[in-house]
Amino acid sequence: MLTYKVPHCANNEKSMSEINEKLLKTIADALERMAPKEIEKPSLAKGDAFIWQIEPDRLHLVKTVNYVNIDLLRAIDHVRDILLKNTEQFANGYPANNALLWGARGMGKSSLIKAIHAKMKNIALIEIHREDIPSLPRLLEILKQSERRCILFCDDLSFDHDDGTYKSLKAVLEGGIEGRPNNVIFYATSNRRHLMARDMMENERSTAINPSEATEEKVSLSDRFGLWLGFHSCSQDDYLAMIDGYLDHYHIKIDKKIAHAEALTWSRTRGARSGRVAFQYIEDLAGRSALKLKN
Fold it and tell me: Which among 285, 244, 281 has a CA at the least distance from the CA of 265?
């Protein structure tokens, strides 16, 4: 049997060494790509407004908050003053209540929360989506490790049939062993006073052995908010006052009688008068006038 022996050569050894080095580097790079990246721990030090996101848990920084100047929020003076005072108490380290802002659409519920936050100093605003409420205990575990005061904000909070999400919120607000940390307050907005649909309440009353107990568990969630602030549809005078406030704030030059007539026509096409409808008219007017709206 004949065999062939490769002649010993320094160049061959060098070439094999280079090949092995490249192969090892390729394997190392592949393993590094397969390994999960180290997740940065959520921190409140990077800014003043965040959105809580899960999978993985993180606080997404919001560099610019979309808010309306608090002086432009009309027809809600009473609830504005109550929520502002409550937030000031909280900011100064005194007792304050969780707040449920409920009522008519477009009347400034979420706008008021963001506007008040803009007035506060060194308070973080953290928005949590309704579908992420079950992760609330994990978020609170992070927040209680910080000395910074935080407003948790959930917009359009409501619950439907067979939705057990509210149980997580109940325990956190008041009923759990730990409750919420002292540096956290919870503000929510909803179109429903009791956070559940009327037909859902009526259905449970009609089918339950004890109708009064059927809805008590879900209705008791709203009871855990110390403040119930109602927002109601505005009058025509209030609506036109909103229009005037926006015209002055954005320096839009137009005869106010003409603006009022247009704004009323605009509201009739929407079937409602509200702060949101007023601002939508202002946006349309600014667009037609080739103006840019700047805060």
Answer: 281
Q: Is the pLDDT of residue 135 over 50?
A: yes
Give pairs for 106-109: CB < 8 Å, separation 24+.
106/272, 106/274, 106/275, 106/276, 106/277, 107/75, 107/76, 107/231, 107/232, 107/233, 107/234, 107/274, 107/275, 107/276, 108/68, 108/73, 108/76, 108/231, 108/275, 108/276, 109/189, 109/231
Which of 123, 130, 120, 184 has the alpha carbon at shortest distance from 156? 130
pTM of the predicted model as reported, rounded to 2 decimal places: 0.78
What is the residue extent of each domain of the chain?
49-231, 236-288
Does the domain made of 49-231 have the CATH classification 3.40.50.300?
A: yes
Own/partner contacts of 173-181, CB < 8 Å, gap of 24 or more, are 173/98, 173/221, 173/224, 173/225, 174/224, 175/224, 180/98, 180/140, 181/140, 181/143, 181/144
State the pLDDT confidence band at 205, using cuts at 50, 70 and 90: very low
